[in-house]
Amino acid sequence: MMKEISIDEKLAIIREAIEKGADVNLSFHGVISKTIGEEIINRMAELTGAKVYHSKDIQLFNFECLTNPKGLRASVFYELSKEEHKENIKKQIIQLQEELA
Q1: What is the pLDDT of residues 34-77, one digit of tens each?
Q2: Using an 8 Å Cβ cutoff, are 74 and 44 in contact?
């Protein structure tokens, strides 16, 4: 049975891996809200100076910060909040009404 790993223990493992040449891939799954997902990725990108990319199709924000020989990648997969779903539906209705007019 695996034990619960503390943040400090996780950081020690990550530090050792980086010192041995590992790439770092950070991934957030199931973030509820596009806005919160964007805030998370923008903060990390700000620390690295990397450009953030967005894919609406798979509801993803990500960036890469490549250094020789290894790099850092981060991804935030988000779900739309109820409010964001409502806003999208309103936009679609308006667009359909304009097309039918």
Answers
A1: 999 999 999 999 998 899 999 988 999 999 988 766 789 999 99
A2: yes
Amino acid identity for residue 6 in this structure: S
The dihedral sign for the CA sequence 45, 48, 53, 58: negative
Cβ neighbours, 10 Å, residue 79: 14
Strands 71-79 and 24-32: parallel
56 close to 38: Cβ distance less than 8 angstroms = no
- In which residue are the tokens 């409010």 written? 83
Q: Mark 46-64 as b/e (b = at least 16 C-beta within 10 Å).
A: eeeebeeeeeeeeebbbbb
- pLDDT bin (cut points 50, 70, 90) of residue 2 is confident
- Tokens, residue 23: 């790439």
**Three-class secondary structure of residue 24 per DSSP:** strand
Place of tokens 């097309």: 99
CA distance 68 to 56: 30
